[in-house]
Amino acid sequence: MNAGQPAGPSYPTPQYPTSLGTSTADTISLLGQDLAGDLMGKVGFGELAMWLVTQRRPTPSQVRVFEAVLVALADHGFTPTAIAARLTYVSAPESLQGAMAAGLLGGGSRFLGVTEDCGMFLAQALARHADEMPADPADDAAWEPLALTAVREARAAGRYVPGLGHPVHKVQDPRTPRLMQIAGEEGLLGPHLRLFDAIGRVHEQVLGRRLPLNGAGVCGAALADLDLPVELLRGFALLARAAGLLGQLAEENRRPIGMDVYLSVDRAATHVDPEGS
Q1: What is the tens place of the pLDDT at every residue in 194-247?
Q2: What is the dotted CATH code of the domain comprising 59-266?
Q3: DSSP labels, 204-253
Q4: 0.85 cut: is pTM over it?
């Protein structure tokens, strides 16, 4: 600005409020705590993840259930997400982040996303029928009329009941009873888990066949009972699967199979007439 030139309009310095992380030249604060002095070495990653989302420090019981969910969802073998990560790594080994992202992008309505879909389904059913909640929440049989209603409504709308069925575990997903047990031990067997459990008992009356309650679904119910936002539940599934994908990529380094997967598909490709049946 030239001397004597009138000053232009002044604007207030913008403020961007956050309750998460801030830093100065000498300190880092997270959740209102000193990161180095109060959190590092004192707070586990699962506890921190819950705290970041809810802005409330979770109890040890909540952390145990939450971390059981993360363990349940971390890895389930050569799922599409794991295969996508490995094949991307074969194609671009210099891009670990690309391989991780490829696996995470596959978290949808059939794999991983079921966690959020089930939590949302249960939460909406409980909200719609709040006046039908059992007087005694510990009475398992009392949840069955509401469960029947929820399944019937889904069928009438032409929708699947998320959390029912599994491509591998045709009779029982071993994660389901174990997570129910852990939640019960910690006094966190809440309405979402109880309704989900009841759906497992009654759905055959509506659908005409028995399907297992799958691990992704029970994880969604457990997370909803922890009062985590149901619209963010897929994020926790992705958080868990990120660890599994990193393990898959580490194994791809040690014992590669990605190229064999690619070649087996490529060599099995057969041309078909696009006009044929």
Answers
A1: 999 999 999 999 999 999 999 999 999 999 999 999 999 999 999 999 999 999
A2: 1.10.230.10
A3: HHHHSS--PBPHHHHHHHHHHHTT--GGGHHHHHHHHHHHHHHHHHHHHH
A4: yes
